[in-house]
Amino acid sequence: MELSLIRTVLRAGRAVALLLLVAGAADAGSPLPERQAELRHMVRQDCGSCHGLRLTGGLGRAITSEALAGRDPVDLMDVILDGMPGTAMPGWRPLLTEEEARWIADYLLTESE
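and the corresponding structure tokens:
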């Protein structure tokens, strides 16, 4: 009887560990590859309509990795989500999750032209 109880506890423990692992992956905030492709397209098309198709500036300032060097990714995420009051930069919070906005911020900081 004790061996059966031990096996049950071990199975339950493995299930909990698996759930925690999956939850941790979800919390990591990295969108699925398909969504990443959509977000890259959005950056080029939607952001590019103001920041230039090469992101080197236009109505909005340049948002290349060189232009954003040294910027805090969390600050960039906040700008993406909430916009910049007094400018033409809209907030994208109705269309993006915080994780997606953070992914875009990291993408902008690391991608070259």
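(Above: one complete record from the training split.) The mean pLDDT is 84.
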